[in-house]
Design a protein that fits this description.
Elements: E1 6-12, H1 19-24, E2 33-38, H2 45-51, E3 55-58, H3 64-78, E4 83-86, H4 98-106, E5 112-116, H5 121-126, H6 131-148, E6 160-163, H7 164-169, H8 181-191, E7 196-200, H9 214-235
Parallel strand pairs: 1-2, 1-4, 2-3, 5-7
Antiparallel strand pairs: 4-6, 5-6
Helix pairs in contact: 6-9, 8-9
Length: 249
């Protein structure tokens, strides 16, 4: 396993103030490369990342959160990654857990691992998660678990780890360039039979951490429900869901 390559990918937008703290918390020796994809930030994110020795890819125009992830994963595969961990560079998620997260993949326990921010209601809200986001997260995750036959603590974490096989199999480039990309990816992973698990991860809510406003949150929530509904119809052969098409070679 020591020969397996671990690459951390960071979809970035205006993370100048937090990217260094996020990187510094990753234990030495727990990764081989960090790739940061800058989605046309208006600050010095790319410059700071290069100063930290990260591999930096810059979009010429803003592609959105999902579009950023597509570049992250395409680049990680091209660089020979065996295990890919997505960590947001906004210091919201605890990057000290990196070696433990990768361990679940290396031992074959999971193909996909999510970092769950929700261990208890008190801890989640106490960390600064707005109550409306907590309860909407609980509702959406319940629906998604029931529809897709899973038992995940939450479906909406931005801390995610994958084996290379997952990214080579899941046709993620079929997905939206917006936030609903995450829901689509997990539906695809379930469809293709991958083992999905989660571990608790401490999180921080602060001014510098990325967040979406109420309007975008509602759009995202409706999009997640639509993904779940279309997944169910596809699995029951009542509707063809195009994002489930096998990835072209």
């Amino acid at each position: 396993m020591s020969e397996k390559k671990v690459i951390v990918v960071m979809p970035a937008y205006n993370a100048e103030a937090t990217v260094e703290k996020t990187v510094r918390d990753m234990p030495a020796g727990s990764y081989d490369e960090i790739i940061l994809v800058d989605d046309c930030s208006k600050d010095r994110t790319a410059e700071v990342a290069r100063g930290l020795g990260l591999t930096v890819v810059q979009h010429q125009k803003n592609r959105g959160y999902g579009g950023n992830q597509k570049t992250c994963y395409d680049t990680a595969l091209a660089h020979g990654a065996d295990f890919i961990v997505m960590i947001h560079p906004d210091y919201q998620y605890d990057s000290r857990l990196l070696p433990y997260v990768v361990g679940f993949l290396k031992t074959g326990i999971c193909d996909v691992l999510l970092g769950s921010r929700i261990r208890t209601r008190a801890q989640a809200i106490g960390s600064g998660m707005p109550p409306i986001k907590y309860y909407s997260n609980r509702f959406l995750s319940l629906v998604e678990n029931v529809v897709m036959g899973q038992n995940l603590a939450e479906w909406h974490s931005g801390y995610r780890a994958y084996t290379r096989k997952v990214l080579e199999t899941v046709p993620y480039n079929n997905n939206s360039d917006d936030f609903v990309f995450d829901a689509q990816f997990l539906a695809q992973a379930v469809h293709f039979g991958f083992e999905i698990g989660d571990v608790p991860v401490p999180c921080r809510y602060m001014e510098e951490a990325s967040s979406i406003n109420l309007s975008r949150s509602i759009t995202y929530g409706v999009g997640c429900l639509r993904v779940a509904g279309r997944y169910w119809l596809h699995e029951h052969h009542l509707l063809k869901y195009g994002i489930m098409d096998v990835r072209s070679s």
